[in-house]
Write a structure and sequence with these properties.
about 575 residues, 4 domains, Beta Polymerase, domain 3, seven-stranded parallel beta sheet, Beta Polymerase, domain 2, about 15% strand, alpha/beta, DNA-binding
DNA sequence: GCCGTTTTCGGCCCGACTGTTTTCAGTCG
């Protein structure tokens, strides 16, 4: 996709300009444009063809011309010229924590270091010490940083992040000096994956909290330890940042520490236009009087806008919507009446239908789809005709006993290499709900995969398409599909697309899910539970749905059983 | 390089921590 190419080049230009020491605002313009284009659901191609590139935020005359040049030639002059001046390896050094553009340039200019490997050799041989501003400590940090970057500190799934954050909060919340403590950052925003854990605490005695934090049993290394802010690396190489502020500033600090960065910048710019200043301590006027600080709601109100839920804080139109009082009424966990994707021990799940039912009742559900795998997925003990009969009888019997919860006889059926279902029509029609999924042929072309899924949508017996892009964290990336085609087919055939809330999947992602809604497609959250405890992953599915601006009416999960059974018939 | 309910020029978010300094630049989020 051309967007990725454009974004990569703009990001590279930003890095190269940083090292050269260009105008920081110009550098940021490239960086912002890169982020903006990477996050777009639509292709920039048509915008260029219609001369509408400058309508995009952050794209002016100059960048529009560069985008056109990249579309036409695959690259742009400016980028090619910069690459000749600064070797690739110098840019790679920026990935080392602690090394920024100035330091990378220093090493390159003074010692002609052109790669991370060369940097390590130079550090070990003692060639770095003695450079301006470099002494022993800096050399040590460079070596530690390289070690870290080579271990590949990658993003973690949201469940892992929640557990790590929970462990830290659990240890610190019992301290007398901690008045309040809450995870912030991308975890609070419900992002699909998380890089660092950010935690915010309110206390009158920040030093005590800092001491307790860096002394936690699972801390391997302390990378920063100040009066109100510390960073540590856990034994699993996960970075955790803790910031401590006075309770009176908790709202302002939570807002700041939750981000996103782009959201914060936009808010602060807005404040400047109102002759105000925002920082983590509050909203201040020109005379340094604090106008709001205790709660996030108070701060948004002071800026003349509605409260923005954390999941929306990505600078994707939420600030404008909040000012016009047009934010969506986001779906909540309480609105959810059932789960569309759960496995039992009939196929590859760990628990019996009874155990799954008990867990679903605990969550207060009206219904639960037991979507065991279909016949052709042998590795997952997919069900043949005989075992389907047994399962059907089993579920009917259970439903006779259960009060308040209905187990739906369902399947996660295979979409074959040509887009057909692996069960024949007479079997498909026996299910209450048919969830169709691609589990094979990931390497087919984008066009072929799109055709398969479109064909599944058009199948009158298919109700939901599971995990539409097939990604699995961390090993398997999404396969490429033409979302426009799939959304068109899904909307036209009343087929729902799944938001798979399993932390290893989180698929559809927030951006395509929002685009699906805008294309008139209904969505259905499924947890893909293979264990009764996994039904709790609904929280992640709902978080994702909220990030996609979804309201109650956009999801099948919010329908009563009666309505659901009516709506789902095609 | 972008952008305008003060502006087509002159701004551009804001502060903590580190390591090296002795008042601050660089990095990070």
């Amino acid at each position: 996709m051309i967007n990725a190419r454009v974004a990569d080049i703009f990001r590279a230009i930003a890095e190269l300009l940083e090292i050269r020491g260009g105008n920081p605002f110009r550098i940021r313009a490239y960086g912002r444009a890169a982020d903006r284009i990477a996050a777009m659901q639509e292709d920039v191609g048509p915008y260029a063809a219609q001369g509408r590139l400058e309508e995009l935020e952050g794209i002016g005359k100059d960048l529009a011309a560069k985008i056109e040049e990249i579309i036409a030639t695959g690259s742009c002059r400016h980028y090619e010229d910069l690459k000749k001046i600064i070797p690739r390896g110098v840019v790679d050094m920026l990935a080392v924590p602690g090394i920024g553009p100035k330091t990378a340039k220093l090493f390159y200019d003074e010692l002609d270091i052109r790669s991370v490997a060369a940097l390590r050799r130079a550090a070990r041989r003692g060639r770095l010490a003695g450079l301006p501003g470099v002494r022993q400590k800096t050399v040590e940090n460079v070596l530690k940083g390289i070690e870290l970057v080579e271990k590949g500190r990658q993003r973690m799934d949201i469940e892992t992040a929640r557990q790590v954050a929970g462990a830290v909060v659990g240890e610190l919340k019992n301290l007398k000096s901690v008045k309040d403590i809450e995870p912030a950052g991308s975890l609070r925003r419900g992002r699909e994956t998380v890089r660092d854990i950010d935690i915010l605490a309110a206390s009158f005695k920040p030093a005590q909290v800092m001491e307790a934090f860096v002394a936690l049993p699972f801390v391997k290394r302390v990378s920063a330890h100040g009066a109100t802010k510390s960073s540590v690396l856990t034994k699993d190489d996960i970075q955790v940042d803790l910031r401590v502020l006075a309770p009176s500033a908790f709202g302002a600090a939570l807002l700041y520490f939750t981000g996103s960065k782009d959201h914060n910048i936009k808010l602060r710019q807005l404040a400047i236009r109102k002759k105000l200043r925002i920082n983590e301590y509050g909203v201040f006027d020109k005379k340094e009087r604090c106008l709001a600080s205790r709660s996030e709601a108070e701060i948004y109100a002071r800026l003349g806008m509605d409260f923005i839920p954390p999941e929306l804080r990505e600078d994707k139109g939420e600030i404008e919507a909040a000012r016009r009082h047009r934010l969506p009424r986001l779906v909540t966990l309480k609105d959810i009446r059932g789960d569309f994707h759960a496995h039992t021990n009939y196929s590859d799940g760990r628990n019996t239908p009874e155990e799954m039912a008990t867990a679903a009742r605990r969550l207060g559900y009206d219904y639960l789809c037991l979507t065991d795998h279909s016949v052709s997925l042998r590795v997952a003990r997919g069900l043949d005709k005989e075992r389907l009969k047994k399962k059907r009888a089993h579920i009917d019997k259970l439903n006779g006993r259960l009060k308040g919860l209905r187990l739906l006889f369902a399947t996660e059926a295979e979409i074959d290499a040509d887009g057909r279902m692996d069960y024949p029509v007479d079997i498909l029609r026996t299910f209450d709900v048919v969830v169709a999924a691609v589990h094979s042929g990931f390497k087919q072309s984008r066009a072929h995969l799109t055709r398969r899924i479109v064909r599944a949508c058009r199948n009158p017996d298919v109700h939901i398409i599971a995990h539409p892009t097939g990604r699995q964290w961390p090993a398997r990336p999404s396969y490429e599909v033409d979302f426009d085609e799939i959304f068109k087919a899904a909307a036209a055939t009343n087929t729902a697309l799944e938001i798979n809330g399993h932390p290893m999947r989180m698929d559809l992602g927030d951006i395509p899910a929002r685009a699906a809604k805008e294309a008139g497609v209904r969505l259905a959250i499924g947890t893909d539970a293979h264990d009764a405890a996994h039904l709790d992953y609904m929280r992640f599915g709902v978080g994702l749905a909220r990030r996609a601006w979804l309201e109650k009416k956009d999801l099948l999960n919010t329908l009563s059983l009666e309505k659901l059974l009516k709506v789902i018939k095609k």
